[in-house]
Amino acid sequence: MDALKISNNVSIALAEIDCQAVRAQGAGGQNVNKVASAIHLRFDVARSSLPQFYRDRLLALNDQRLSKEGVIVIKAQRFRTQEKNREDALNRLKRLVQSVAVVEKKRKPTKPSRNAKKRRTDRKTQRGHLKSMRKKPSLD
């Protein structure tokens, strides 16, 4: 595998993705201080070979994983092995890039119909009548 496939015609060369092994945080027993099993993935969006559409959308993201310099930083430490963490980090990068490719459909503002308004007011009147029937009768 020499590229991370995003879609049928878009992929990222693995040379553009910097993966470094670091020590994982948290509990891990005696092995935690010896083994660097967590992965720090860094991907520079501005210098990547991604199409301009993807780069613009990624740089416009309001995401904590994106630095001010336009570098995506993902830390994967879910698994005990370095290989699984590398695979997890690459999958998370792939999902992030795929998420910006989805174009949301523009919402058309609509109004309720006259009948819908009438049904609503009728239900409110009926409910109010039901509640008024619960009151104690007045002594008038």
Helices, strands, pairings?
Elements: E1 3-5, E2 11-13, E3 17-22, E4 38-44, H1 52-59, E5 71-76, H2 82-101, H3 114-132
Antiparallel strand pairs: 1-2, 3-4, 4-5
Account of the 3D structure:
- It is built from three helices and five strands; from the N terminus they run E-E-E-E-H-E-H-H.
- With about 140 residues, it is of the alpha+beta class.
- Strand 1 and strand 2 form a beta hairpin.
- Helix 1 packs across helix 2.
- The longest helix is centred in the middle third of the chain and has 20 residues, at about 80-100.
- The relative contact order is 0.14.
Strand content: 15-25%
Write down the secondary-structure element order. EEEEHEHH
Category from helices, strands and their pairing:
alpha+beta
Q: Which consecutive residue ranges, at least 5 long each, have pLDDT under 50?
A: none
What order do the strands of the largest sheet run in, or round the barrel if closed? 3-4-5
Helical proportion, percent range: 25-40%
Number of strands: 5
Q: What are the defining features of this structure?
A:
single chain, 140 residues, alpha+beta, Double Stranded RNA Binding Domain, three-stranded antiparallel sheet, two-stranded antiparallel ribbon
Q: How would you briefly describe this protein structure?
A:
The protein has 140 residues and is an alpha+beta fold.
